Backbone:
């Protein structure tokens, strides 16, 4: 059993399990009934997405310092009681169930899902292939 970190809209992996969309907004121009069949997500869970202001600051910034500031702000958001409990739940769930979390960004290294993976790892989550 394990968690995967995926790009939403990408082909699913065998044994991936439930796909959770950790994004602020659902995909544009796609009917809700098609989210799962078009490989976006089975469950939309914006509670683990960065705040709109955090994303806006990243987009308006330049260079590595903008990414560093984004990571610091997103980690701070995820340290709040509600998101922190959700991360604990997902880490525990990864011990007995397969599921994935993801975002639309093409480059995982510059996406909140890379930070989300670190936060889950720090809580003892079991990852696919690892």
Residues:
């Amino acid at each position: 059993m394990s968690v995967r970190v995926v790009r939403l809209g990408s082909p699913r992996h065998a044994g991936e399990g439930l796909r959770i969309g950790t994004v602020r907004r659902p995909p544009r121009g796609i009917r809700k009934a098609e989210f799962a069949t078009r490989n976006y997500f089975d469950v939309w869970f914006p509670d683990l997405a960065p705040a709109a202001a955090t994303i806006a600051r990243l987009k308006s910034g330049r260079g590595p310092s903008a990414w560093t500031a984004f990571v610091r702000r997103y980690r701070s958001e995820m340290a709040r009681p509600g998101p922190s409990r959700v991360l604990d739940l997902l880490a525990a769930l990864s011990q007995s169930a397969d599921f994935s979390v993801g975002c639309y960004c093409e480059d995982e290294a510059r996406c909140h899902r890379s930070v989300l993976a670190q936060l889950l790892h720090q809580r003892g989550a079991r990852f696919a292939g690892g």
Remarks:
- The chain is about 40% helix and 10% strand.
- The first strand starts at residue 3 and ends at 7.
